[in-house]
Design brief:
The protein is an alpha/beta fold. The chain has two domains: 197 residues, Rossmann fold, CATH 3.40.50.1100; 107 residues, Rossmann fold, CATH 3.40.50.1100. The chain has twelve helices and nine strands. The strands form two sheets. The protein has a five-stranded mixed sheet, sandwiched between helices. It has a four-stranded parallel sheet with strand order 5-4-3-6, sandwiched between helices. It is globular and about 60 Å long.
């Protein structure tokens, strides 16, 4: 019998609202009533965003283990790192962020908030994902030798435990938008999509790869299977059996919005960012949600999402990162 999940630490404001977006829907080629926004950018803690749902679980685990400091990884403008720093403060813990690159001459965007939240930043240099993991492991070992009790929070908050945060979000969505045909979400570390797939079914979830990891299809499948094996009781009736046989080819996860790479805006993502602002007054971020909206626009053009089909766009937050990008809209 799988062990019980660690306690959940309440960090966010739930449920997050859903809002109609009729002008954006028509701009995309849908009918005015087709599109609603799931506002997980309004989740509350430390600037909000999707990471708060995952951190409620991973911080619960850290506290259950007796940790006194959280350690996590990310890019310089990582929303997950900023949210982890805020969660640490809410839980009375310290925080060390191991980030790719070197310290900039002037902090901007999420780095300003990391500092305000008192996070210690360790710069890992120009490393790949494996190098970043090694750097974080070294930090964890050093903290232990110094007498601290670190808990490693996974990249993006995405492991089988963090995924449960988006199984809960799927429950919210079923109650708020019971007729949803498509649920569209950016895919970075994969945990958000994995939780939605586990909770809603693979056919309803349209992920849009933003280039954060080299293997998003395999990663999402691994996370979905992991949550089904570790905590099957947390899933809807019958879901655990269905997702245990899930394969990469079953996912709706196009990879054509990555462009020149993770964190690099494209013409399509910049157009999407501007469209959301000008039609609905909704502010997206250039790394995740702008590319996800570009992916939805592409899905409408190719007929994968059609007028008359109820569609939910999950706004996963990230606004502070907008101020860390020197060139986004050209204004």
């Amino acid at each position: 019998m799988p062990p019980a999940a660690p306690p959940v630490v309440r960090l966010g404001t739930w449920p997050t609202p859903v809002e109609p977006a009729p002008r954006l829907a028509e701009h995309l080629g849908l009918e005015a009533g087709d599109l609603v926004l799931k506002r997980d950018d309004l989740s509350g803690l430390g600037g909000g965003g999707n990471k708060v749902r995952k951190l409620e679980r991973t911080v619960g685990r850290a506290l259950a283990e007796g940790a006194d400091v959280l350690v996590t990884t990310g890019a310089a403008q990582s929303n997950h790192a900023r949210a982890t720093a805020a969660a640490a403060r809410r839980a009375g813990l310290g925080c060390v962020l191991v980030l790719v690159g070197s310290e900039p001459a002037r902090a901007a965007g999420n780095l300003v908030l990391d500092a305000l939240l008192g996070a210690r930043v360790e710069w890992a240099g120009d490393v790949d994902a494996a190098g970043l993991d090694r750097a974080a492991d070294a930090v964890v070992e050093r903290l232990r030798t110094e007498g601290e009790r670190p808990s490693r929070v996974p990249y993006g908050g995405s492991d089988a435990l963090g995924v449960l945060g988006y199984v809960t979000a799927a429950e919210e969505l079923r109650a708020q938008v019971p007729d949803a045909r498509h649920v569209v979400v950016a895919v970075g570390s994969g945990g958000t999509m994995a939780g939605l797939v586990a909770g809603l079914g693979v056919e309803r979830v349209l992920g849009v790869d933003v280039g954060a990891v080299p293997d998003p299809l395999e990663r999402v499948v691994r996370l979905v299977r992991g949550v089904a094996s570790a905590t099957p009781a947390e899933l809807p009736d019958g879901a655990a059996e269905r997702v245990r046989t899930l394969g990469p080819d079953d996912l709706r996860l196009p990879r054509d919005e990555v462009g020149d790479g993770y964190g690099v805006p494209t013409a399509a993502s910049t157009a999407a960012l501007e469209a959301a602002a000008l039609t609905e007054g909704v502010l997206l971020d250039p790394v995740y949600t702008a590319k996800a909206l570009a992916g939805l626009a592409s899905a409408v053009r190719r007929g994968a999402v059609r007028p008359g089909e109820r569609t939910v766009f999950v706004h996963t937050g990230g606004l502070p990162g907008l101020f860390g990008h020197r060139t986004v809209t050209g204004v």
